[in-house]
Each structure stands twice: as C-alpha cells, then as structure tokens.
UniProtKB/TrEMBL annotation:
Keywords: Dioxygenase, Oxidoreductase
Pfam families: PhyH
Top-level taxon of the source organism: Bacteria
Cofactor field: Fe(2+)
InterPro entries, A to Z: Phytyl_CoA_dOase-like
One term of GO molecular function: 2-oxoglutarate-dependent dioxygenase activity
Keyword Transferase: no
Protein name: Ectoine hydroxylase-related dioxygenase (Phytanoyl-CoA dioxygenase family)
Organism of this sequence: Nitrospirillum amazonense
Length: 307
C-alpha cells in the first residue's frame, strides 16, 4: 500500500502515516496555522477570511477594467474556445479571462497576499509557483469535477493547490462555488496508461463522463455534504487538488460572481504544459518571497504589468 492516500503520492498532509502528519502539525508553532492545516487535511479545503485587503482588490479591478479595453487580454468562452477579450461575452456564464493575475500589476498582491503565500508555504514546505489564474465575472456553472483531471503538475499531480478569491461579496443564486467537504479522499480515478489526468484525444468522453458521475455517486453514498461558498470580498478558499467542486446553476439572472481562481504548485516543480511551450516561455517570473509565476498564454516579458 502506498504511503499516501493516492497512488500518485502527494503533499506531506496526504500521508497515511498519522504519526508523520501529527509530527508535521506539531512543528507548526502558530495554533491558528495548525487549526487551518488540520481542517485542510480533514475536509480538503480551508477558508481564510479577509485574506486580501479591499484596497488591493479595488486596484486590481481598476487595472482589469482598463486592460479589458485594450483587447490584449485572453479569454476562454464555453464551446467556442480561446479568443482575445470580447466585452460582448464577458457576462456569459462560464467565461474565464486568463492569467490576469500574472499580467496585471496588482496580480502578485492578490495571488501572493501575505496570508495566501504563508498558507501555501505551510502545505508546500517551500515557496509557490502560480501557473494559471482564471478571472470570472459570472458563475462557472461547471459540473462537479476534480482539478487533477485537467490542471496537471508534471510528474507530481497531487502537488497542486488552488485558491478562490472573492472579488466582491457573493450572494446565493450567482452560480456560487460548491464542493463536497471531505471528497478529496474519495476513490481515485485513473485514466488509460496510468494517468491521473484526462486526455480527450486518447480517452474520449465516456471515461470522463463516468469520472464526473462517480464523484457525485461516491459522495452521496458516503453522506458527504455538498457545501456552497458565500464569501465576503477578500475571503479566500484553498482547496486540495482532488476536492470535488463545481459551480451552482445561476438562478438570479445577471447576478455577478466576481472571483479569481489561481492554481499553484511548489516553485521547484512545473506545470505539465511547460513541456509543450517554447523554451523561452518556461521562464519563471519572480514574485515576492521566492514565489514565482508562469503563463501558458503570455510571453514572460508581459507578466506582472507588461500588458
């Protein structure tokens, strides 16, 4: 049996050895840190309230509004793929504006706000690499899924943590984030060739559809509660790589759900996509306290205020 809950390994918090985990927790001098990590271990997520100051968010949103008028941002539109920013579709459910956390000057103040960077370092035992951000105006309405099926850290798929930052107060009916608390320990889905991630060309849709259906079935069989996230502006939810999560349906038309999702790995690792981009684009742009950035969509010279 693996020393970890997953056959693919994981972070120190993913070890089966309770003594080793207990020793790791005991090494955390701050009791609040210890409580947060314990919650993350047990439930697969933790929330830090007021993690990002409102003034920082307001500066970012002002930069976002200015950049959106230049046509230089990239977005992904459901069923239509990637395109340059188009204001006519920004309010459609599921639209993601890509890597604004990397290209806007205030991006590092959001992605690596002190409370965020500090908690990531507790999990990673080293600084973090932010390698994808997704800016949402509206709810994603995305089916319950696990990030490890799509967001891949090369050779270490469980060395992944995501954050969900509320850029405004979030109200019910906006397509709010939902998740199965404790679902990060559900049975593991393994795709062909022993992969943890889904490859559409190799796997097709049936295994993927079965994966999503199984998550709901397994969670319900185990009595795991589906929770919704209704945060205040500045609150951040951290989730485990395998936490099943998605977006509720939007029941109040036009109600926004402004948020920024960031995917991180330890700075010593790389996202899988780095194997398929030009060598000059594999450059890590430094941020504060040893943290760093990469982007699949932008050249390194455009990161952090280069747009």
């Amino acid at each position: 049996m693996s020393n970890y809950f997953s056959q693919f390994g994981g972070l120190w918090v993913d070890q089966r050895d309770q003594l080793a985990v207990a020793q790791g927790l005991a090494a955390l001098a701050n009791p609040i840190d210890r409580q947060r990590v314990e919650h993350f271990i047990r439930y697969g997520y933790v929330v830090i309230e007021n993690a990002v100051p409102h003034a920082v968010i307001d500066a970012y949103l002002a930069e976002y509004d200015r950049a959106s008028q230049t046509g230089e941002l990239m977005m992904e539109v459901p069923f239509h793929g990637r395109r340059t920013y188009d204001a006519t579709v920004r309010a459609k459910p599921g639209v993601k504006v890509l890597d604004t956390g990397m290209v806007l000057p205030s991006g590092h103040d959001l992605c690596f706000a002190p409370a965020v960077a500090q908690f990531l370092k507790l999990l990673f035992k080293e600084p973090a690499l932010a390698f994808q951000t997704l800016h949402f105006e509206m709810g994603s309405t995305q089916a319950i899924h696990q990030d490890t099926a799509y967001v891949v850290v090369d050779k270490s798929p469980l060395h992944l943590v995501a954050t969900w930052l509320a850029l405004e107060d979030i109200a019910s009916g906006s397509g709010e984030l939902v998740y199965y608390a404790g679902g990060h320990r559900l049975p593991e889905t393994v795709y062909a060739d022993g992969r943890k991630h889904w490859n559409h060309e190799k796997d097709g849709n049936p295994p993927h559809d079965a994966h999503l259906a199984n998550l709901r079935q397994w969670a319900q069989e185990r009595g795991l509660p589906m929770q919704q996230f209704l945060p205040k502006k500045g609150d951040v939810l951290f989730w485990h790589a395998d936490l099943p999560h998605g977006g509720n349906q939007i029941t109040v038309p036009g109600r926004t759900r402004k948020s920024l999702v960031t995917h991180y790995c330890p700075v010593s690792l790389r996202p899988y996509y780095s194997n398929f981009i030009a060598e000059n684009r594999r450059h890590v742009t430094p941020s504060v306290n040893g943290n760093g950035y990469m982007s699949l969509y932008y050249q390194p010279e455009r990161l952090i205020g280069g747009i």
